[in-house]
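INTERNAL AUDIT FORM
Audit reference: QA-55
Scope: verify that the stored structure record matches its stored sequence.
Auditor: D.O.
Record contents follow.
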Amino acid sequence: MISFNKGSSHQVGGLALSTVAWILCITSMGLPQWRVWYLSESTISYPSVAFVGVWKVCIYLHNNSSNIRMCHQYNYHDTFIPLDISVSQYLLLITNILWLIGKVATIVALRNVYMGRQEENVTYNAFTTSAILNIIASSFIFLTVLCNYFSIVNKEGIGFPPSFHIPLYPYSQKIGVAMVVAFLAAFLFLCSGVIFISYTFPLNS
């Protein structure tokens, strides 16, 4: 018979936090708004805005009648990708793998607790493993945010192919909403890791 352990309710919350963090991480990966570029000199005859993401860049062309969006995908094989974006791609991919392993470890630990098993070391180790993986995932996302943030602060450009119709340097650039989403994901991963590592085995076991 399954015995509910109130002492592990925080860990269930930690699992929920890590899941939300993963959803936010995936969302930030799909969004192009990591860097918002305002273009003043481009091959387009009217003003435009470019959203530079980790996996794609989208350019918005504005005129009096309509807005046109054109997106170009890229990956780590493309030579024009700067080092900070390439590193960001790897960090976010590794983060997803870490979350998956951490989730499995958390489920194993919670199963042991709810089944009333006396495997104290196994439960401790599973929660600790999950905590470490979530904290590492948090640091990876935070590093990704920092890489993009410093690129914006330093006003770095990107040598996109001529077919993209995007200049090497924008007139100005700022932080996009995807960076905010990623930062929130990093914070939630950190919170879930702290919750997992704070688990104490019940004395009445």
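Auditor finding: record pair retrieved intact. The beta strands are 35-39, 48-52, 56-62, 67-73, 172-175.
Action required: none
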